[in-house]
Amino acid sequence: MAADLAIEAVGLHRTYRTRTGWLRPRRGTVDAVRGVDFAVARGELFGLLGPNGAGKTTTIKMLNTLLAPTAGTARVMGLDVVRDTRAVRRRIGYVFGGDRGLYERLSALDNLRYFAELYGVPAREQRARIGALLDAVDLTGRERERVEGYSRGMRQRLHIARGLLHEPDVLFLDEPSIGVDPVAARELRAMIAELSASGTTVLLTTHYMAEAEELCDRIAVIAAGRLAALGTADELKHAAAGRRVLSVEAYGVTDAHLARLDALPGVRDATVEVSGAQQTLHIQTDAHVDVQSAVLRELAGVRLGRVETRAPTLEDAYVAIVNSTRTGVAA
């Protein structure tokens, strides 16, 4: 492994055994990860994107020693994740989204003291290190309150402090901003950027494209257990090069409408984003084709709002990449 690499994955596979039925059980296998290769430089903030079930979390768990690869190899800071498990764990931190991983009836301070013991932080260093981390995650003054009274954003900041207690070289952040309000999410992004700037290697998974574009030096897209794309945000946008996006606010669009829109000449992809009662159609088209009139005809009888044409974003490119793996057609 090159000395300047923090993470290296080569041909990673992970297969699960399955069982269905009770009277006559049928056994099978599911390939969650099917040969993933990538490398992350030391100090890089690397993004891992993909739809639910694509293999992102399974990949992270193999890299941080929680799952053994079925095949392939992975190294973290030059250490093999299978042969050098304990040494790898001393060099990494793992933060995941949600409410798991903290003791709610304890204060933030007691949580950090407890995990400092588990991580083997020397007793003479614990007080100063915990104090510095509480300052870094903006919880000073609230550290003696029980975690059960914390907001989701405060819990996530405490999760990050917990993951940094032993000063890891590599920090895995698995959807850290999930369920967090916009203000808290902005604070988390600023904190993650500061971590990377200080020299910590960060591997981030997220479903939020704006978050990935703002933070990540490079981004990998995993779909159906395989690496579908790898590059900077601008490089990934080339997957949607030669396209335009027609966005339509609507109320009452059905799957039948989407199917008819997908079949229109010049339409490359049609998806719908739902926010309460409002739907927003995102229709990717060939750049030289004007489909607006045809789209509006297909939506006759549907209540419509704003209609606009725009250049593709990273999210549009991501949709194009993921859908191309499902259809087998190049994006």
From TrEMBL:
SMART domains associated with the record: AAA
GO biological process assignments: response to antibiotic
Key words of the record: Antibiotic resistance, ATP-binding, Nucleotide-binding, Transport
A GO molecular-function annotation: ATP binding
Membrane topology: Peripheral membrane protein
ATP-binding among keywords: yes
Name of the molecule in the record: Daunorubicin resistance protein DrrA family ABC transporter ATP-binding protein
Native species: Actinocatenispora sera
